[in-house]
């Protein structure tokens, strides 16, 4: 039987992550027992000595403290909300325990913005990592040594697992259930809890808002120019000339400030506008394409799918209520 440690951190954390993980893994045990087999998991809520209740509206207490857990097989770190440095300081006593358990063979999984705390352990250095897409820019700024893949639902590398935003934790949990118990059980759980199995990308959910927390004013002005003129054909040379910057200097500063090249930023602003156009009204794909400054259908479709993970038609059919009503 595998020992599962679901961490109960100090501070405001996701009760959904904790309860959902406990409930679903408990259901795995129930299904196994119904088949006359032993349970797969010994699940415990693990906290720190003297830890108080979370600052959220609902409290939950650990069943056991870390000093009583000599050996565990899988550690779950829920999303913890608030200032990452304050969270790390509040929960620093978890870190040596997590590192020791990992060294002894335990695997570690973190959900959503729990990645900020996990990053403090050093276990993510040099590895791929997912987190909530809305926090991607902050994460990159704080942890440049970690390969953030903000379009991914989950990552798995060397026994360290991360998931993207919010309820994508369910996809990571299904992945781990399959790893520990087999495909048949994972499918049974996916059907029981109605979780879409084998989902890999959170791209369709990303809302691109640009990265303007930097202090490079010419780059901010270039961003604003792109956002105000996305319906036109904008070139890098045009922007460099408009703001009296050499192209190479503009590219370097833009990438450093926004984590996007100028061309990528132009594409993402155009596609974000296209998404809004497809979500509302009854415009067809070609009309939306022309409205955001594309004239090549193939290029538009390729860029749209690269950024969102869906074709323009698939995106419209999923998010446009009027289109759904007309089909119905």
What does this structure look like?
This protein is an alpha/beta fold. It folds into 2 domains: 2-205, Rossmann fold (3-Layer(aba) Sandwich), CATH 3.40.50; 217-327, Homeodomain-like (Arc Repressor Mutant, subunit A), CATH 1.10.10.60. The chain has helices at residues 15-34, 84-90, 94-103, 114-120, 136-142, 169-181, 183-192, 217-228, 236-242, 247-258, 262-279, 285-291, 297-308, 312-319, 321-327; strands spanning 2-7, 12-13, 41-47, 64-65, 74-77, 80-81, 107-110, 128-129, 147-148, 154-157, 160-163. The strands form 3 sheets. It has a 7-stranded mixed sheet, with helices on both faces. Helix 1 (15-34) runs parallel beside helix 6 and helix 6 (169-181) runs antiparallel to helix 7 (183-192). The longest helix has 20 residues, at 15-34.
